């Protein structure tokens, strides 16, 4: 096993404001634990960075010592990209801060922040920007991969709301990338993942989002066919103010679900309504839920936006076993529905699930070539996630996910969202994900990181001319 010699470690400790933890230090095991407990690796050291100076110091230390580098944002990557055996982890966790400018409707967000930090800080001004559906997810990885969530049909992907990014590059220089400066880098950062540098802060455009309509509707899993046949027509035709992701799940034994449905295998839709909530507009918008089949449970009501964003946090705490895979879809044909029916009936554990996130609407108003994200013509981003607290069930949830994905993949558009690519997926999947944008990304990589120093990510090796 590799390591860092004592004097070198001491010099790093002296140079940084953030903490440096090595194997055997108190706090090392906690610092190396990430969201997905299936990933158990031991970095040579974990260097916490409080500011840009710390980030620059850690990069040059890794280069001087020849250590491999991995960058940790929120630590939510499924395959644990930020955690590499014997590498130096550049840990952005201390950089959790958000500055909102309510007059300009913008927020500047530290590179180690979680989505909940941004939602919390913006909500006090009745503002928000699209992010993912679990508030402990890192702003860093989510944004660099694209980012979609409840607000995407209305306000686009997270990257569609990115105004600029402060980045420390492989050569140690510090730049601000935007439409006007380093525009090629800015293009690549919007979907190309952590390939191009360490983003120390992101600046986002915010939108007036305060209370939103939350709805949850579930039907017995036996009705998956009727529900999906209805959903695939209804949602794309619905106004952009209404979003609703489709899910296969087991009803958790917790509110708002009544006891008789606890433990039931169901299909369902989680709704988010961002139009005016005056009177009974939300209820009226959702009366359609009776169309495919009678639901076994339906709830709708106004909630503050951060409540919607945090509603799955308790159900999915850090420390579970996760194995996931994703694909993009432009249609849900009957044959694909048959696959969903089969695996929905065979959910292997109580938390295992499949989601179809709508990514149409505002996402399509950005030109296909304006950002590195290559699937603006997709209607859904799908993820199959095998999840369980028990390490002994790791193989079970993994196999269910791989089998489900293998049967469903033929009905997909080819590539999958880089933030949903799993472990053991081939480099060819990354290429498929970027399609016609791949060569441009590889060229930008070769301009900004010719030695592929940043490779602990869904890697795009530099183009060789
Ligand atoms: P990390 O593991 O810290 O990082 C992931 C990758 O990004 C690594 O390669 C890392 O080096 C790089 N990186 C992170 N921060 C930076 C930075 N500041 N600068 C440079 N590189 C950086 N995605 C969605 O779009 N929508 C969702 O609704 C959604 N829901 C999710 C729910 C859960 C429970 C989980 C676990 C994930 C979800 N995701 C969702 C996927 C999520 O976007 C990815 O897992 C993402 O990579 C997490 O980013 P992170 O910073 O937390 O992860």
Itemize the secondary structure elements and their pairings.
Elements (H helix, E strand, L loop, with lengths): L5 H10 L4 E2 L6 H5 L12 E4 L3 H14 L3 E4 L15 E4 L6 E4 L4 E5 L4 H9 L3 E2 L10 H7 L6 H4 L6 E7 L5 E5 L4 H7 L8 E8 L1 E2 L2 E10 L3 H14 L4 E9 L14 E9 L7 H5 L11 E8 H5 L11 E9 L4 H12 L7 E6 L21 E9 L5 H15 L18 H8 L3 H11 L17
Parallel strand pairs: 2-4, 3-4
Antiparallel strand pairs: 1-2, 5-6, 6-10, 7-11, 8-9, 8-10, 12-14, 12-15, 13-14, 13-17, 16-18, 17-18
The protein binds flavin-adenine dinucleotide.
The site of flavin-adenine dinucleotide has 33 residues, from strand 3, helix 5 and strand 10.
Q: Explain this structure to me?
A:
- The protein has 465 residues and is an alpha+beta fold.
- It folds into 3 domains: 6-91, Uridine Diphospho-n-acetylenolpyruvylglucosamine Reductase, domain 2, CATH 3.30.43; 98-208 and 435-448, Uridine Diphospho-n-acetylenolpyruvylglucosamine Reductase, domain 3 (2-Layer Sandwich); 211-420, 3-Layer(aba) Sandwich (Vanillyl-alcohol Oxidase, Chain A, domain 3), CATH 3.40.462.20.
- Helix content is 27%, strand content 23%.
- The chain contains 14 helices and 18 strands.
- Helix 11 packs antiparallel against helix 12 (394-408).
- The longest helix is centred in the last third of the chain and has 15 residues, at 394-408.
- The protein is globular, with a radius of gyration of 22 Å.
- Residues 35, 71-78, 81-82, 92, 111, 132-134, 137-138, 140-142, 144-145, 147-149, 194, 198-199, 316, 419, 456-457 line the site of flavin-adenine dinucleotide.
- Flavin-adenine dinucleotide binds next to strand 3, helix 5 and strand 10.
């Amino acid at each position: 096993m590799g390591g860092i010699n004592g004097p070198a470690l001491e010099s790093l400790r002296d140079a940084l404001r953030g903490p440096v933890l090595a194997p055997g230090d108190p706090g090392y095991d906690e610092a190396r634990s990430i969201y997905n407990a299936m990933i158990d690796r031991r970095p040579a050291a974990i260097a916490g960075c409080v500011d840009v100076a710390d980030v620059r110091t850690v990069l040059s230390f890794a280069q001087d010592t020849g250590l491999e580098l991995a960058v940790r944002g929120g630590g939510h990557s499924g395959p644990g990209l930020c955690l590499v055996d014997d590498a130096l982890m550049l840990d952005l966790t201390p950089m959790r801060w958000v500055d909102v400018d309510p007059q300009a409707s913008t927020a500047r967000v530290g590179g180690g922040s979680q989505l909940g930090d941004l939602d919390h800080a913006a909500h006090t001004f009745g503002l928000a920007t699209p992010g993912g559906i679990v508030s402990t997810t890192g702003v860093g990885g989510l944004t660099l991969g694209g980012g979609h969530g409840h607000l995407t049909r209305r306000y686009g992907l997270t990257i569609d709301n990115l105004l600029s990014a402060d980045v420390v590059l492989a050569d140690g220089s510090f730049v601000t990338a935007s439409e006007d400066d380093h525009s090629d880098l800015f293009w690549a950062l919007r979907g190309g993942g952590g390939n191009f540098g360490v983003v120390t802060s992101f600046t986002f455009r915010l939108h007036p989002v305060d209370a939103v309509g939350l709805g949850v509707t579930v039907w017995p899993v036996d009705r998956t066919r009727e529900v999906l046949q209805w959903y695939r027509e209804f949602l794309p035709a619905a106004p952009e103010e209404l979003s609703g992701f489709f899910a296969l799940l087991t009803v958790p034994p917790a509110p708002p679900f009544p006891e008789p449905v606890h433990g039931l295998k169901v299909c369902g839709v989680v709704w988010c309504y961002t139009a005016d909530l005056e009177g009974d507009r939300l209820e009226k918008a959702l009366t359609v839920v009776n169309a495919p089949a009678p639901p076994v449970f339906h709830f709708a009501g106004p909630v503050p936006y951060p409540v919607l964003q945090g509603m799955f946090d308790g159900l999915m705490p850090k420390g579970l076993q996760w194995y996931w895979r994703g694909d993009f879809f432009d249609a849900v044909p009957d044959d694909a529905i048959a696959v969903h029916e089969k695996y929905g009936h065979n959910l292997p554990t109580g938390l295992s699930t499949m989601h179809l996130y709508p990514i149409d609407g505002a996402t399509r108003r950005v030109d296909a070539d304006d950002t590195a994200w290559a699937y603006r013509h997709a209607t859904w981003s799908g993820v199959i996630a095998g999840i369980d607290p028990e390490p002994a069930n790791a193989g079970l949830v993994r196999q269910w996910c791989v089998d489900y994905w293998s049967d469903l993949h033929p009905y997909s558009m080819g590539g999958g969202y880089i933030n949903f690519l799993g472990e053991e997926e081939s480099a060819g999947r990354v290429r498929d994900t970027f399609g016609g944008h791949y060569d441009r990304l590889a060229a930008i990589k070769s301009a900004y990181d010719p030695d592929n120093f940043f490779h602990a990510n869904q890697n795009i090796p530099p183009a060789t001319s």
